[in-house]
Amino acid sequence: MDKERKYKEGEKLLPDVEPGRHQPPDKELNPMPDRELEYEENSNEKYRDQTPDDKQND
After folding, report:
1. Residue 5: which residues within 8 A CB-CB, separation 6 or more?
2. Bias category Basic and acidic residues: which stretches (predicted)?
3. What whole-number distance in Å separates Cα of residue 38 and Cα of residue 32?
4. Distance of alpha carbon 39 from alpha carbon 46, whole angstroms
């Protein structure tokens, strides 16, 4: 059956590829990331201008 389908007109032939080949292993993924650490890393505080006026207006 596979040989019949192999040369069907208009059908693009793709090479056999391992499924999930380019995905990282499951153990490297963290399903529950540390939200506090993520907040610190993405915080705008470190990019804010540190002028004396900012502290008085807050």
Report:
1. 11
2. 1-36, 43-58
3. 11
4. 12
Q: Please give the structure tokens belonging to residue 18.
A: 């391992």
Q: Distance between CA atoms of 9 and 11, rounded to whole angstroms?
A: 6
pLDDT in tens, 2-41: 555 556 666 666 666 666 666 666 566 666 666 666 666 6
Residues 35, 41: Cα–Cα separation, whole Å: 10
* pTM given for the model: 0.16
Q: Are 5 and 11 in contact (CB under 8 A)?
A: yes
User: Which residue is associated with the tokens 């004396």?
Assistant: 52
| 6 within 8 A of 12, measured Cβ to Cβ | no
Rounded-to-integer distance, Cα 4 and Cα 46, Å:
63
